[in-house]
Amino acid sequence: MAHGEHHYYVQVEWTGNRGTGTSGYQSYGRDHAIRAEGKPEIPGSSDPAFRGDAARWNPEDLLVASASACHKLWYLHLCADAGIVVLEYVDHAQGTMRESRGTGQFTGIVLRPRVVIQAGGDAAQAERLHHLAHEKCYIANSVNFPIACEPTIIVAEVS
């Protein structure tokens, strides 16, 4: 694994100018395009509660997705190292943000991964590795709110 400092470069371009810029709060769109070299563009907006487009990704969605994806990547790595064969992994993550005094703050994220491991695998060890994945997750180590993990481990039937 590489050590040291890593840098991430993205471009966020506002595409919501409806012809009059930000001449009024209701006069502009919240749409934007998120780009990084060599990667597909992500269509972004704000949450519909803040005049955004529900069909586009908002920063809150992306934060929850980042926490979920980081945890999953660490978990799969740890399972591979421990000899636990993961066959399926689906997380139904949920983030909670609270608004107060004209601003907002995330108060928590709950990850709910459903993991299927190969027949004969150690389900208890597979569950314990979620705790280690959480300790190693870059996103979980970078935020100022709790990220909980409520995994479900299923051992595949012998076929």
Question: What does this entry look like structurally?
Answer:
The chain has 159 residues and is α/β, with parallel strands linked by helices. It has 2 domains: 11-50, no CATH class; 59-155, K homology (KH) domain (GMP Synthetase, Chain A, domain 3, 2-Layer Sandwich), CATH 3.30.300.20. The chain is 24% helix and 28% strand. Strands 1-2-3 form a 3-stranded antiparallel sheet, with no helix packed on it. A 3-stranded mixed sheet has the order 4-7-9, with helices on one face. The longest helix has 24 residues, at 59-82. The radius of gyration is 19 Å and the shape is elongated. The protein starts with 10 loop residues before the first strand and ends with a strand. The model has no long low-confidence stretch (mean pLDDT 95).
